Amino acid sequence: MDANKFLADILEQFEGDVNDANLDVPFKSLETWDSLTAAAIQVKIEDDYQVKVEDKNIRELTTFRDLYNFVLENKK
Amino acid sequence: MTKAFIKAVSYYLPTTYIDNEELNAIFPSWSADKISAKTGIFKRPIAKSEETSTDLAFKAATKLFQEHSIRVEEIDFILLCTQSPDYFLPTSACVLQDKLGIPTTAGALDFNLGCSGYVYGLSLAKGLISAGIAKNILFITAETYSKYIHANDKGNRSLFGDAAAATLISVDGIAEIGDFKLGTDGSGASNLIVRNGAFKHKQIIGEDEVDQEGNFIRNDNNLFMNGPEIFNFTARAVPNLVSTVLEQAQLTIEDIDLYIFHQANEYMLNFIRKKIGIPSEKFYIYLKDCGNTVSSTIPIALYEAMKNKIQPQSKVLLAGFGVGYSWGSTILYF
């Protein structure tokens, strides 16, 4: 699983200037983060990576890398 | 079987608005830029306190008659879609028959649906025409969700606008109404609801629920929407809805000239558009000056798209989805 492709897929769910975001940025700190962004990320990951990300996972994970590692660990 | 056509469309918006700057002044942590970036909405028409959905419906119908030189004597059926009626009873459509001067020989009924309501109304109208029951149906969508929304509910106040739209459906016209795909999943009922006020919870007085910072979450007297759950439902249901209606019509995604979906919010619309694989130039968005007007978003967008995006021979796919859950789609053949 390509980490940069994963990051691009997730960043697509944010609007505005997210070009300087990298894997070590806390995703909930981005300006346009809200509950709809979370829902979009959950659907995107389930569709494209076949991993179910629950609300509590979103609450517990901090950076894009945490999210990437979570998907990597739970991917069948 | 007699074919059914859309013959004319008009709409009416209340003249008072709330814009992003006003929302920003009420909710200082809520930036105007963030609101418009996420929702695509800059202002929402809001009915005055004494102005009801039937008032908006009357104005939309009057505009339809004037703009398209339609005589009220021609109308032989009134369909009205609303979830914010003037009364529990009588039906708003009956009140409108008298106010508009439509012949007493006309049938009239209301039906209670939200964002899927326009597509459902077209399906009912087509049924009435196909069965030879009516020839000229006045179909009105009219909603004043603002009256359900709590003053402190910044999310819903940012999204919803009040409006009414009027459509004439007839045995001839500008766009033939194609076949339908409809669907329902009542397991999602609690995710978009006004819980109190009708007979299930008539005597219960709602209280404000707030989070740790004191931000408003919900009050059961008011409109409650679980945004992430509605997003999930939409992301799952709509792509399937579109593919089944296309399959039924033996058409591909490329064959459709314009897609007009219920205008929920721009963020969600773009997510579904990309998921389905619709090019942005074929995907109509009209939210900026009216917001999510529930069952009126599709006819409002249709009216605007007919000015420059829709040509003779265009195929236009409509899809409505939301409260219920309820969804529906059809194709218009111009």
Describe this entry's structure for a reader.
The complex is a heterodimer of chains A (76) and B (334). Chain A is mainly α and 76 residues long. Chain A is built from 4 helices and no strands. Chain A has helices spanning 3-11, 35-49, 55-60, 64-74. The model of chain A has no long low-confidence stretch (mean pLDDT 89). Chain B is of the alpha+beta class and 334 residues long. In chain B, helix 3 (53-67) crosses helix 4 and helix 7 (227-248) crosses helix 8 (266-276). Chain B is globular. The two termini of chain B are 19 Å apart. Classes of the chains: A mainly alpha (76), B alpha+beta (334). Chain A binds chain B through residues 13, 15-16, 31-32, 34-36, 38-40, 42-43, 47, 55, and chain B through 34, 37-38, 227-228, 231-232, 235-236, 265, 267-268, 271, 275.
What are the defining features of this structure?
heterodimer, A: 54% helix, globular, B: 334 residues, alpha+beta, 9-stranded mixed sheet, two-stranded antiparallel ribbon, 9 helices
Q: Quick recap of the structure?
A:
Chain A is 54% helix and 0% strand. With 76 residues, chain A is an all-alpha fold.
Global mean pLDDT of chain B: 96
- Classify the beta-strand content of chain A into a percent band: under 5%
Would you tell me the overall average pLDDT of chain A? 89
- The percentage helix of chain A is 40-55%
How is the quaternary structure best described? heterodimer
Biggest chain-to-chain interface with counts: A-B, 15 and 14 residues
| Number of separate helices of chain A | 4
Distance between the termini of chain A: 12 Å
Radius of gyration of chain B, Cα only, in angstroms? Answer: 19 Å
Outline the biggest β-sheet of chain A.
none
**Strand fraction of chain B:** 15-25%
